[in-house]
Amino acid sequence: PVRLFGDLPFMVARDGAGLRQLTRDGFGLLEATPAWSPDSQALAYAASASSDPYARTWQEWAAWCDASSVHVLDIASGADQGFGEGCDPAISPDGKRIAFATAPTVRLENPSFFNAANAIRLINRLGQNGWKFAEAAGAPGTAGAKQGLLVYAPAWSPDSAQIVYQRFLGYQALVDINLSEIGGSLEGKGKLLADGAGWMLPARFAPGGGAVALVENNYS
What we know:
The chain is mainly beta. The protein contains one helix and 21 strands.
């Protein structure tokens, strides 16, 4: 298992033996959301220069991701490869691709100098053939496929054919509205799966892929 101690990833055996720190960036970065490759030979994670730990509320998450970059660590050699700005990396179950949330690109003055406008990006394991699987334009009232303030938390289906992600619309009808959307991993075109209040956490597929668990973090 991988555990986070003081916002750094450590690996430990199932019996608690052999605890060791996996990353040594030397720059005081905070690291979060570790995700194993299916062969257990590599670990994707995000490293942020933020002074605050990884958060599960919308303004704090946006600030953390804005200062973050995506990495993949080879466990055996310790070689670390960076894939650019972003957070919430997830390696596909077939081991061929990585999905992550890109860093917000727009600074909104209202509400509260909030970072917004980003995408779910897909790349191969070499960082090539990147494309925007889903986008958020950064405006609460935006209509169409790019609606909302942020997209985040991509999660792969067990067969790597689909991705569920979250779309934050912002404060509407006296509550923070969040949509869970699902799309084919080769074409995107996400469609509504469910809606929720607050800040939705990453989806979890059942092992057979026939069901999805969604957790609503309605912190307010």
